[in-house]
Each structure stands twice: as structure tokens, then as C-alpha cells.
Design brief:
This protein is α/β, with parallel strands linked by helices. 45% of the residues lie in helices and 13% in strands. Bound molecules: zinc ion.
């Protein structure tokens, strides 16, 4: 028999940890396709995390301009505070600003109030620097807890993870980055890359990312898909008025 207190505690823990089970890519694509970033079949969403970065972000923007592709940038509030002009340049170039939190800390080790403050603060910093209201939220490490979900809702953001990543925070060649994406990507998917090395010990990891971008455009062509930002891929938060 489960005692009432134990039952409540178990339910609380299940509620807290449950959504993190969706961290498994295959499971979340099957269970929550929208949350995983599965959108229009003829489209692929291109997303970058951990910026803005004074070196990586301009290099990514330049490559995207050459390729004629726009993307969504999940920004860290702390990085936006340090480099507001870089955050502004992302939106000025026609890309979409989104929220990755203020600090890059796992939500599992933070309390719900702390998580809520972090996400709300990040959304406000991103909005102030870019002059646009962000629509999307992706938690650090893709660890989505119940607190992350509540925080996103409070900040008017829709959580989105990814269906394919390039593991570009590791020491990889551009061909390796593209190969990892290719092994996971299907039409309608969302690609996760990084325009900053601020969360990895691999200095300049974004160089491989930049060099992999033409390969990813080729991959999108082979899949018969157009690459673009999340705003062209998924429905936005209901009631956002946009
Ligand atoms: Zn990150």
C-alpha cells in the first residue's frame, strides 16, 4: 500500500522528472512531434543555440547570407547582455530570435521559481536587444522539466527541441557534423547547431558548423525541403497575436 504522503511525493517527482524522459530523440518525435520540432513536411527548420557570440555568430550570419538561408537563434540572456549588438544583428539580417534561458544551467538542478525567473529574464533581455518578441524556448541541454514547461508558458513561449543535431560542440570536421545530421534528419525535421563555443571546451567549434552549412543546404535539396526558421515551420503560441 502506498501511504498518502508517499503517493504525493511520488506524483510530484514523476511530474518533475517526467518530461525529461522526452529527451530521447526518437521517443519525443513519436510522442510529441511538435515539441520535437517536426513541422511542415516540405520544410526543415535550422536552429542555432548558445549565442550570441562575438566571433561565431557573425561568421554564421555571413555564411547564411551567402547561402540565402534564414534560421532561428536560441539565445542565452547572459550572452545577449554581453553582446547586444550581435543579438540585434541576427534579427536585422532577417533571422528569428528565440530564448535558450538566461544562464546555461540544467533545469533539473534548479527550483521552479528559479527556472521561471531565468526564462522570463532571458525573454525580456532578448526582446530588448532585438526589438522583437521571441516565440520559442529551448532549455539548456534540451532538458525539459515540468518547471521548464510552466516557465515557458508564463513567458508566452512555445518549447521546441530538435529532431537532428550535428554534435558540433565536439571536436568534429564539417563533414562529420553534416554526416550526423544526415543520419537523423527526415523531411519536416528541426536541426540543432551552435553559433557559439561558450558552453564547450572546444574553442572555435563554430568554425566546423559554418563550414558544414553548405553541406546541409545540399542535404535539404536532396530531401526536397526548404531550410528556414521555426516561424515558417511550426504554429506559434496561441494567443500571441502574431
Ligand atoms: Zn545550449
Amino acid at each position: 500500500m502506498i501511504r498518502p504522503l508517499a503517493a504525493v511525493t511520488t506524483a510530484a517527482i514523476a511530474g518533475w522528472v517526467g518530461p525529461t524522459l522526452l529527451r530521447g530523440r526518437v521517443l519525443r518525435v513519436a510522442v510529441c512531434p511538435g515539441l520535437a520540432g517536426l513541422g511542415r513536411p516540405g520544410h526543415l527548420a535550422l536552429t542555432f543555440d548558445d549565442g550570441p557570440d562575438p566571433d561565431g555568430t557573425p561568421a554564421v550570419l555571413e555564411a547564411l547570407e551567402r547561402l540565402g538561408v534564414t534560421a532561428t537563434f536560441f539565445m542565452l540572456g547572459a550572452q545577449v547582455q554581453r553582446y547586444p549588438h550581435v543579438a540585434a544583428a541576427v534579427v536585422a539580417a532577417g533571422h528569428e530570435a528565440a530564448v535558450h534561458g538566461f544562464t546555461h544551467r540544467n533545469h533539473l538542478v534548479r527550483g521552479p521559481v528559479d527556472v521561471c525567473r531565468d526564462v522570463t529574464r532571458a525573454a525580456s533581455v532578448v526582446a530588448a536587444a532585438t526589438g522583437t518578441r521571441p516565440d520559442w524556448f529551448r532549455p539548456p541541454y534540451g532538458v525539459l522539466t515540468s518547471a521548464s514547461l510552466v516557465a515557458a508558458r508564463c513567458a508566452g513561449l512555445r518549447p521546441v527541441l530538435w529532431t537532428a543535431w550535428g554534435r558540433d560542440w565536439q571536436d568534429r570536421s564539417p563533414a562529420q557534423v553534416a554526416a550526423v545530421v544526415r543520419s537523423q534528419l527526415t523531411p519536416g525535421g528541426t536541426v540543432l547547431l551552435h553559433d557559439s563555443d561558450c558552453t564547450t571546451p572546444v574553442a572555435g567549434s563554430w568554425r566546423a558548423t559554418v563550414a558544414a552549412l553548405p553541406l546541409l543546404v545540399e542535404l535539404a535539396d536532396q530531401l526536397g525541403c526548404q531550410l528556414g526558421p521555426l516561424r515558417e515551420h511550426l504554429q506559434r503560441v496561441e494567443g500571441s497575436g502574431r
